[in-house]
Amino acid sequence: MFLLLPFDSLVVNLLGISITVLFTLLLVFIIVPAIFGVSFGIRKVYMKTLLKIFQWATLRIERGAKEKNHPLYKPYVNGIIAKEPTSLEEEIKEIRRSGSGKALETPEFELSDIFYFCRKGIETIMDDEVTKRFSAEELESWNLLSRTNYNFQYISLRLTVLWGLGVLIRYCFLLPLRIALAFTGISLLVTGTTVVGYLPNGRCKEFLSKHVHLMCYRICVRALTAIITYHDRENRPRNGGICVANHTSPIDVIILASDGYYAMVGQIHGGLMGVIQRAMVKACPHVWFERSEVKDRHLVARRLTEHVQDKSKLPILIFPEGTCINNTSVMMFKKGSFEIGATVYPVAIKYDPQFGDAFWNSSKYGMVTYLLRMMTSWAIVCSVWYLPPMTRQPEEDAVQFANRVKSAIARQGGLVDLLWDGGLKREKVKDTFKEEQQKLYSKMIVGNHEDRSRS
Amino acid sequence: AGCSQCPGTPLSPLSSPPTVTSEQIEHLHRRFKQLSRDQLTIRKENFDSIPDLEFNPIRGKIVHAFFDKRNLQPESDGLADEINFEDFLTIMSYFRPIEMNMDEEQLDRFRKEKLKFLFHMYDSDHDGKITLQEYRNVVEELLSGNPHLEKESARSIADGAMMEAASICVGQMGPDQVYEGITFEDFLKMWQGIDIETKMHVRFLNMETIAHCY
């Protein structure tokens, strides 16, 4: 045993030194810049290097696939059916015209009318717009994450080695680093806000609270290796306004809150989330609701209105879609936030899926699995655009205003603007939509029927 | 990604040469798996997960057509509880577009098959005739969305259309002659000279040209 002692102490010393070095590096290169909001640019260099490697990997796969004659790219997923861009009325007129050649001023019900609906029905069964929004986007190049390439086959030794190296780096080096950072960030947030909460209300408290929040969110951003580009920062939300953004994952909150000081709105959770929420509200007036209160729309609206009317209070951050969408489109905005009557500051967030898919498919993965997936991706790269503020015009109602904001966000982010409700992830279509189509068709037939009987 | 359930010729009732490429079949297979939630068969409830389909007033009849055994196998009858991928493809094949190289006989058979599919949609009690009640039923479904429409109006529209059908099929009827219903031969007669093939098909996007763009 005594013979092992010097060896033991050597190992212990080495371990001690390496841990100290690691933590010093962590502190100097990551945490300190986060506190002051500056950046060494390490992440950008990292991103460029990764891109070069991905390009090489993709070229290699293409070459390999050509040699083996494999079909490589998944066919264009934006629809597999050639749909006619004509409306219901035009189509039915055409069907009838090609049918009986009768005068078109006396439209009555014809057997052939059923063709149009039959064909439309079969077309939607083959392929529909909504269901494909709720599964993750498929990539055309390969980013060395086997989870994004469904066609991965063995191509060459070098590629496999590279992939293996990638796995090693991500799981054994990046993951522990990120977990350590996340831990630091969250504990600093909880302790920092609790401490600030003991101070008397005033300018000092506000100043400290703002900086504690910003610092901790910046540490969390680095914990995910999120590389964010902010555009048009002069349009950032101001006090007394509401900030709305499209929703792809819970990370959206961290991304936005690390660049601005917002009041959050949400439901109180249990567990770790609940602890964080309760600590945060001590330092700054966030709006948290109990689970029972969430159902009461009037209560929610009243509290939000109260908050917004106080001009000294912070801008509220809201995600009106109500659920996570896979970042290829923007779905219907719930009108609640648009009825309050405050200035709306729209924000568009678009993720670059090459480095890691940020979409949270809540039916497939729980929160913990999702966070692990995020922390073992290469990086989260996204762009944030701050759009100019919008207010509700006198002649439009809340729904129209919501749609106008939604279109602006979709256009800026390059996303598809859809009329459908994000709630369709879990529920069925409301009957009101179905009735619209039927009304149109029956108006065509009966409206003219009535005209004739009148004359 | 192989199509492990595809038999040699999945397009059985329409025995003309298959005009769907293997890639399109793969697409349909993926769609089938999505609808069936990775099971081997689909039931009626699985069609509830298509929001766009709710728009369609004759949704019930379309879904029913998938499970109607008269469409799945020639000379059979009744309703199936669940269908597999082969059945799914069979129904889809009623909506194939016409090919340039089809001869007269093939075109005629093609047309008859499509019209038969439609006939089965109208004839909901499987007795081989479209009665006045069944016709009314279809019209009411198509016009059901309009709350201002009286049931009587829908009925009178159906009756008017039925009378016209009778006049085409039977000619002038005596005062006490009763028109039983439209049989399939009468149905064919009504569509004579009318080009339906171009209206009752679904065209796939041409995949190859798009993939090579990268």
From TrEMBL, chain A:
Transmembrane parts of this sequence: 12-42, 155-173, 179-200
Stored InterPro entries: LPCAT1-like, Plipid/glycerol_acylTrfase
Residues of the Phospholipid/glycerol acyltransferase domain: 241-352
Compartment(s): Membrane
Pfam family name, one: Acyltransferase
Pathway the protein acts in: Lipid metabolism; Phospholipid metabolism
Keyword list, A-Z: Acyltransferase, Lipid biosynthesis, Lipid metabolism, Membrane, Phospholipid biosynthesis, Phospholipid metabolism, Transferase, Transmembrane, Transmembrane helix
Example GO biological process: triglyceride biosynthetic process
Cellular component annotations (GO), alphabetically ordered: endoplasmic reticulum; membrane
Gene Ontology MF: a single term: glycerol-3-phosphate O-acyltransferase activity
Family affiliation: Belongs to the 1-acyl-sn-glycerol-3-phosphate acyltransferase family.
Protein name per UniProt: GPAT4 acyltransferase
UniProtKB/TrEMBL annotation, chain B:
Domain of life: Eukaryota
Pfam family of the protein (one): EF-hand_1
UniProt main location, coarse: other
SUPFAM superfamilies tied to this protein: EF-hand
Subcellular location(s) of the protein: Cell projection, Lamellipodium; Cell projection, Ruffle membrane; Cytoplasm; Membrane
Domain EF-hand: 110-145
Region spans: Disordered: 1-20
GO BP terms, alphabetized: cell differentiation
Ranges annotated as biased composition (Low complexity): 9-20
An example Gene Ontology molecular-function term: calcium ion binding
Keyword Calcium: yes
One Gene Ontology cellular component annotation held by this UniProt entry: ruffle membrane
Membrane topology: Lipid-anchor
Record keywords, A-Z: Calcium, Cell membrane, Cell projection, Cytoplasm, Differentiation, Lipoprotein, Membrane, Metal-binding, Myristate, Nucleus, Protein kinase inhibitor
Listed SMART domains: EFh
Similarity comment text for this entry: Belongs to the calcineurin regulatory subunit family. CHP subfamily.
Protein name from the UniProt record: Calcineurin B homologous protein 3
Species this protein is from: Nycticryphes semicollaris
Lineage: Eukaryota, Metazoa, Chordata, Craniata, Vertebrata
Gene: Tesc
